Amino acid sequence: MRHEWSSRLTFILAAVGSAVGLGNIWKFPYITGEYGGGVFILAYLFCICLIGVPIMLAEIGLGRRGKHSPVNTMLQLSREAGAHPAWSLLGWSGMAAGCLILSYYSVIAGEVMAYSFRASSGMFNQQTADGIKGIYTSLVSEPEKLLAWHTIFMSLTVLSVAKGVRDGLEKTVVFLMPALFVLLILLVIYAVNSGGFDQAVDFMFTPDPDKFFYARNDIGHYLMDAQGDKIFTWKPMMVAMGHAFFTLSLGMGAIMMYGSYLNPHVSIGQMTLIIVSLDTLVAILAGLAIFPLVFANGLDPAAGPGLIFETLPLAFGNMTGGALIGTLFFILLFFAALSSAISLIEPSVAWLIESKGVRRIKATVWVGTIVWFIGIGSIFAFSGTSLHDILQILFRWFGIEHVELSQTFLKYNFFTVIDFFTASIMLPVGGLLIAIFAGWVMHQDTTEREFSFHNRHVYPVWQVMVRYVSPFLVLMVFLNIIGIFKF
């Protein structure tokens, strides 16, 4: 018997858990302040409506219609629509992308776990900026430490998924997501009284059209043309479009997989709007929790990825109660990471169970082991090892002393290659193909019946969006990222 979510709430929590990840905690608040505050939020919400909602609705619908893993769902639906079975490659691509993303995501999540213990022990107390940087350098420069934390995180992920939908996935997300919201709210309450809350609100929400519409250099100065006028740019809009797509875990099979467990009587449109709203709410709350601490301690709000491991620990180490707040913050990040990791591994596990008759525990261990092994490449990358050096190490393991390899591509580290290939190619292409399949390949009466809009006027709007608007915008994001067009 095919398992289903026990309630609508559990599906919402699971899907939100898949969407909410490390990127929500630091990236959305940062890019909001960087590109115009309130103007950027409006642009982002506009893009969510044009890209996120239509494609998420389509992906959930495909999953519920197929009731299988992404590969078998696409095989079944392509046969139903009289289309070529090559559409199953969409499922394979999503599963592969999920495993590749999890391979480095697990390493980063392991660093988060390590930092939660460092924060609770008071290691950040009274540290200088150089001292905090030294703590991070010490962690990433010792691969065996990263490997240990990577192994612990993957073990927790495997344990959660191996127990199945009801006993594993549901029980995990039913605990993780409410706990995540509670921790966020506690951190926001603390941030309100930190002394930097007003600055944080101004940074994130005060509309600054100039930041949104005009180009700036690396130090924040506006670029001028020959006539002395500011140079117009589309970059913030492209950033808003890209984040609207990537933040919802679209194109990697996770949402399709979760949709396959959804009861046929539940309104997909309603569920999609709730998931999107909660995902955005988490990102905004994260900004209201993080940036007051940054401003109150006179730190750089534009620290980007370094915000988590270098900027914020400096703040925690120099504030009253910093050990407790820092510990809660990194536990929050861990919850967000684990809920996303579960969704990334589930599609591959489900395929092994369906197609190869493997028991769930064994299937989860197999997939988890493969992901763990791939993650070793990112461990070497974070410690400064190039892809060329990693391959030479692997060759030596097999008794091959030296192989000449092209330096043009291999100069990049493993993480950079995997991150670019998944985020910049596999996910946008996957989202584009989902929109095309749902909008053009599936029969109209099937999608109209499956998506069950309560208002008959909504379906034609969705159809126009998923056929024309969403594919065009995702294609523009894809071309901009890979460098064919720059805006």
Explain the overall architecture.
With 487 residues, this protein is an all-alpha fold. It has one domain: Amino acid/polyamine transporter I (Up-down Bundle). Helices cover 75% and strands 0% of the residues. It has helices at residues 8-19, 22-34, 38-66, 70-80, 88-120, 129-140, 143-162, 164-192, 197-205, 209-213, 235-246, 254-260, 268-296, 306-316, 322-356, 360-382, 387-397, 407-410, 414-441, 444-451, 458-482. The protein is globular. The termini are far apart. The model has no long low-confidence stretch (mean pLDDT 87).
Instruction: Report the portion of residues in β strands.
Output: under 5%
H-E order: HHHHHHHHHHHHHHHHHHHHH
Helical fraction equals over 70%
Q: Would you tell me the structural class of the helices and strands?
A: mainly alpha
Measure the end-to-end span. 50 Å
Write the topology of this structure:
Elements: H1 8-19, H2 22-34, H3 38-66, H4 70-80, H5 88-120, H6 129-140, H7 143-162, H8 164-192, H9 197-205, H10 209-213, H11 235-246, H12 254-260, H13 268-296, H14 306-316, H15 322-356, H16 360-382, H17 387-397, H18 407-410, H19 414-441, H20 444-451, H21 458-482
What's a quick, concise take on this entry?
By secondary structure, this protein is mostly helical. The protein is 75% helix and 0% strand.
List keywords for this structure.
487 residues, 21 helices, mainly alpha, Amino acid/polyamine transporter I
